[in-house]
Amino acid sequence: MKNNEPYKTLELSGVKFTYNDKYWALPNRKNIRWAIKDNEKAIDYSRQIAKPSRLLSVIYYFIFRKLRFFNLRNKFFNSVGSQINDSVVNIYFGARGVFKKNTVQEVDSNGNITYTKVAVGELAPIRLEAEYNALLILDKFKTELKYLNVPNVISARKVDGKIVALRTSSVCSTDGKINSSLSNMHHLALVELANLTISESTSINEYKRLSITKDDALSNVMVKVCLSHGDFTPWNTMITSDALSVFDWEMCDRRPVGWDLFNYIFHAEILIKKNVNCFDDIIKSNEEIITGFYKSVGILSEWKQYADLYKIEMKKIYIEQRELCREYDMPHDKGIDILLKSLS
Questions:
Q1: Is pTM, for the whole model, over 0.90?
Q2: What domain range is 5 assigned to?
Q3: Strand ranges (DSSP E) for the chain?
């Protein structure tokens, strides 16, 4: 980590870097996850791109701030140069694999923040296309959204019919908070999204994402679906003074009502609070919150069926993800094993 000689040039998805101003690689240049410009504002902005709910990023930023204050950062962190365009302040290098994306954070002279996601992995354009379509749908409801704050699409670049770069506005705030527990603002935003996009009841057999056979207990269930974020978790939401900012809509689709609610509770309990209980016990301990949501959307009596559907689909998703890791020789995520164990 003590090798602080800067690269003469660094190219990221077609964008060239030089070393006329310092950027720093966190945690180090061989395993770079964040490239942060060496000034106080950039460090503040970087917390919006690195998802500060993650303990690792909190530790890195605490250390980097302290070392920068005492002018010792070059002894511990590596320089990776600087972007020619002064508006770029930070870069997040996404997780490895077929869905890998790099995210460039820009701040203009007026303090307006934008994010550009650049497809790197083989299947990353699929995720960018999904987010692009989701944000266009949500834009139609902008005048009706009171509690849900979502990004705007600024531009999208296509190559061979695939979106390879997506630029959006920021919905993050320097005074925003990331909660590990559902707040009233989360509740209001989820109810709002459900009520604006909810469908009439349809047979679960029409919901193509699940493989329900005629012998299954849920084979004749009628469900209502609505627009769903798909990765509604503490690290993709931020509470501001008057709304819930929700970003990273690349998993958006229509799902059974309440899917995002179960997803938030389940992942927060297992991955953040380190709750080792099974899914059914987690749902039972959060029953008051869950029934409050279903009462607000008018289907209180059916909420347990929706919980069962979420459990079935989530288990299927994680089994598919594990197989995908093997097929594409991606790093094995131990978190998937923990989540599957709870769902069993």
A1: no
A2: 1-93
A3: 10-12, 15-18, 23-26, 34-37, 78-79, 82-83, 88-93, 101-107, 113-119, 148-149, 153-159, 162-169, 202-203, 222-223, 225-228, 237-239, 244-246, 253-256
